[in-house]
Design goal:
Keywords: RNA-binding. This protein is α+β, with helices and mostly antiparallel strands and about 100 residues long. The chain is about 40% helix and about 20% strand.
């Protein structure tokens, strides 16, 4: 579980990132969760954009992605979800 201080640190780090995944009409599926998991292993911190045509609630999408990819949900702001997962191979982010 992340502390408030760690979440603040990760939010600041994520600020300049562009979303690399988009959740659209199809919602969250197994394939997407697998790709997000792989992206988290490579980058540790990613943004996911929830499109207007997504039928699921963005909080449900965030929960499903975090659970599926075994990642920490850093924040949901607007239609953007920020996820963090410590990398096993390429650890670059040192949490405070």
């Amino acid at each position: 579980m992340l502390t408030g201080k760690q979440k603040r640190f990760l939010r600041a780090k994520a600020h300049h990132l562009q979303p690399i995944f988009q959740v659209g009409k199809g919602g969250v599926n197994e394939n997407m969760v697998k790709q997000i998991s792989e992206a988290l292993e490579a980058r540790e911190l990613i943004k996911v954009s929830v499109l207007q045509n997504c039928e699921e609630d963005r909080d449900e999408v965030a929960e499903a992605l975090a659970t599926g990819a075994e990642a920490e949900l850093v924040q949901v702001i607007g239609n953007v979800i920020v996820l963090y997962k410590e990398s096993k191979e390429q650890k670059t982010i040192e949490l405070p």
